[in-house]
Amino acid sequence: MAVTTPFGTVGALCRMVKIEHSIFALPFAWAGAFLAAGALPAWQPLLFLTLGMVAVRSFAMAFNRVADVRFDRLNPRTAQRPLVTGEISPAQTWAFCAVTGLLFIACCAALNSLCLYLAVPALLFAAGYSYVKRFSWLCHFWLGATLGLAPLAGWVAINPTLHLTPLLFFCAVTFWTAGFDIFYSCQDVEFDKEQGLHSVPVHFGIQGGLVIAAFCHAVTSLFLLLAGVSAGLSVWWYGVWLLVSLVLLWEHRLVKPDDLSRVNMAFFTLNGIISPVVLLGVVLGIFL
Question: Torsions phi, psi of 39, nearest 5?
Fold first, then answer.
């Protein structure tokens, strides 16, 4: 039996915001919190950090869906999304954006003054991705930087000062996300060309896009290595770093310019492993 909310059914909402993709950013936010504390963080800021991350990600995804609904109607790959099918209306989506945006601001206020000052700029930055792809192939890096804010958010939630370590993790997540988003966009090259949308594969071709994605993931590995050094993590971190680097390498053996059949495995399955493994590496690097 479907559970109904003022914004649509729970199932439709989960599909609209792709709740399963929370696996990409949330573990990095927790990793930032552990790094800032140098130990197990207090439960109260960890709770508000978690709620805030879920809220801002839900806001960003819902905003993207309503901003892109005219493209989603035309693309066969996205034609079953709830806003297209009518399961959720634009008015409900805007209301959902307002509620999740306010919840995010409230969580930031409950953390500390720096988080509160940065709350609205973070929301605007997250919403901006929906429009960057209309004029620049750098949209992948904008999305990457949006997810890259996760370890920074985790850090300032516990320690409201900036430090080199979360900045290095920000860079790692930015390039990691940009790389796998380039993978994902390879599926829509022809559609994006028809609609005048921009992406790395549209501008450089699928083969060129995969080369750029490989560069992004090589840079990701480098920044993760430097982040571990900056944080003073134990040798356990470097074992995890090697494992993550090998998974990234495996991704690039799965996807070929003439064979995109395993894009979803590379995009979600393997990348869904990386963020929890990085969190595990941070925890092991701190405590062992």
Answer: -170, -165
Distance CA 192, CA 96 (A): 28
The single residue listed with the structure tokens 């901006």 is 128
Is residue 286 exposed (0-12), middle (13-18) or buried (19+ Cβ within 10 Å)?
buried
Sequence-separated (6 or more) residues with CB below 8 Å from residue 89: 8, 83
User: Regarding the domain delimited by 7-287, which CATH topology (the fold level of the hierarchy) does it fall under?
Assistant: Tetracycline Repressor; domain 2 (1.10.357)
- Give the DSSP letter of residue 79: T
d(CA 60, CA 108): 16
* Residue 245: its H or E element: helix 235-254
3-state per-residue secondary structure call for 27-64: HHHHHHHHHHHCCCCCHHHHHHHHHHHHHHHHHHHHHH
* Between 107 and 2, the higher pLDDT residue: 107
How far apart are the C-alpha atoms of 157 and 74, rounded to whole Å? 41
How many Å apart are CA 255 and CA 261, to the nearest integer? 8
| Largest CA-CA distance found in the chain, in angstroms, rounded | 53
Share of the chain above pLDDT 70, in %: 91
Q: Is 230 helix (H, G, I), strand (E, B) or coil?
A: helix
Answer whether 191's CB lies under 8 Å from 74's CB: yes
- For 141-190, the pLDDT digits (tens) are 999 999 999 999 999 999 998 889 999 999 999 999 999 888 888 888 88
**DSSP secondary structure code for residue 259 in this structure:** B
- The full set of domain ranges for the chain reads 7-287
Structure tokens that stand for 173 in this block: 């997540």
Query: Which residue in this structure is represented by tokens 């480098």?
Result: 222
For 208-217, what is each residue's pLDDT tens digit?
988 999 899 9
